Amino acid sequence: MASGFKRGCLTVVIAFVLLSALAAGGVAWLWQRHAGFPDHPLAGLQLGDSVQVESGDSFARVLGKLRAHGIDEGSDLQWRWLARRLDAAGKLKVGEYALEPGTTPRALLVNMRDGKAIQYRITLVEGWNFRQLRRALAAASPLEQKTTGMDDAALMQALGFPDQHPEGRFLPETYAYSRGDSDLDVLGRAHDAMQSALDEAWSSRSPELPLRTADEALILASIIEKETGVADERAQIGGVFVRRLKLDMRLQTDPTVIYGMGSSYDGNIRRRDLETDTPYNTYTRDGLPPTPIAMPGVDALRAVTNPAPGDALYFVALGDGSGRHAFSATLAEHNAAVASYLRQLRAARRQAP
Predict the structure, then answer these.
(1) Is-contact 279 285, C-beta < 8 A?
(2) Which of 103, 163, 205, 238 is deepest in the core (most CB within 10 A)?
(3) Distance between CA 94 and CA 52 in Å, rounded?
(4) Sign of CA dihedral 253, 256, 260, 261
(5) Environment class of residue 137 by beta-carbon count within 10 Å: exposed (0-12), middle (13-18) or buried (19+)?
(6) What's the Cα-to-Cα distance from 330 to each of 235, 289, 313, 344, rounded to whole Å?
(7) What radius of gyration, in Å, describes the C-alpha atoms of the chain?
(8) Mutual orientation of helices 76-85 and 59-68 as an angle, nearest 10°?
């Protein structure tokens, strides 16, 4: 009887120990799973996957978007616990966030908390005119298009500059934007950037400039931008134009004529084009054209406000394919340089297939 009782007690003890061990193992397994959740990569993600946090989204709504995307790791409680631990609960920033292979719950919530959204980029190229700028913005994805159907005047009014001509008013740079940004957002930043660059260049201008306003400097900078793509020539060309203005000589620059021709320009400029008067024909009119003709970069602005010294009043392409120019102080020297250019041009045409 006593031995049977002892065997029964032993069985109970063994069962208790086994159950305790199993319970401890289960707790350890649950704890390990909970502790490993924040840094365990989310499964099933593909390159290009993303989730959008929109204005007014609660944490529950964002979590619902993740679930709808196929993310089933972690319980809702685990996600909420992690968000509180990372001080992200209630602080998720609006934006589009990458869900790329290897993304962990911790990294995702930190990105959302810190606003590290996916960034897209658009490059505005030096020398573009406003038509080219608008075409580039219209083709940018996923940029929201708010200016579709607006003419240039309506667009400038939407930006807050109703009396300003748009040409040349936007700084050519690479701009980052996020999903949900609009073309007006990018234009506003580019306009502010150009105004800042122009103000800086004008404030450090040479005291001998024959220019009355910063806007006149912007116009001349746009001409320089179209005249050369060689960086170290910009200040030289700036010097030529500044000296011409001082002497009341006409600028006689082809890019302004081309701009005034508008859509009729077919890639060639003829004598009759140089002789046809338009507000932009600097062969028929004195001084500067009425507006910029393109977007000048920072170097072109500096080339205007601090032009290179010298005595050159003329320049013409070398004709060797380098994009460089020959600079001349006299008309006789210039005519010889033009003749050399024409000889090289004819030779190149004869050799062309």
Answers:
(1) yes
(2) 238
(3) 8
(4) positive
(5) buried
(6) 19, 25, 7, 22
(7) 34
(8) 130
Distances from the Cα of 2 to the Cα of 7, 8, 16, 31, angstroms: 9, 10, 21, 43
CA distance 335 to 250: 17
Say if residue 329 is exposed, middle or buried (CB neighbours under 10 Å; 0-12, 13-18, 19+): middle
In this predicted model, what pLDDT tens digit does every residue of 300-340 receive, in sequence order?
999 999 999 999 999 998 877 788 999 999 999 999 999 98
Q: Are 337 and 326 in contact (CB under 8 A)?
A: yes
Residue 225, Cα to own-chain centre: how many angstroms? 19
What sign does the dihedral 296-225-275-214 (CA atoms) show? positive
Buried b (16+ CB within 10 A) or exposed e, 251-270: bebebbbbbbbeeeeeeeee
Question: Across the strands, what pairs with 189?
Answer: none
Cα first-last separation, the chain: 117
Q: What is the 3-state secondary structure (H, E, C) of 67-120?
A: HHCCCCCCCHHHHHHHHHHCCCCCCCCCEEEECCCCCCHHHHHHHHHHCCCCCE
Cα gap 293→270, rounded to integer Å: 19
Predicted TM-score (pTM) of this structure = 0.81
Token code pair at residue 12 = 């109970």
Q: What is the pLDDT of residues 161-184, one digit of tens each?
A: 999 999 999 999 999 999 989 999
Q: How far apart are CA 274 and CA 270, in angstroms?
A: 7
Integer Cα distance of 9 and 338 in angstroms: 115
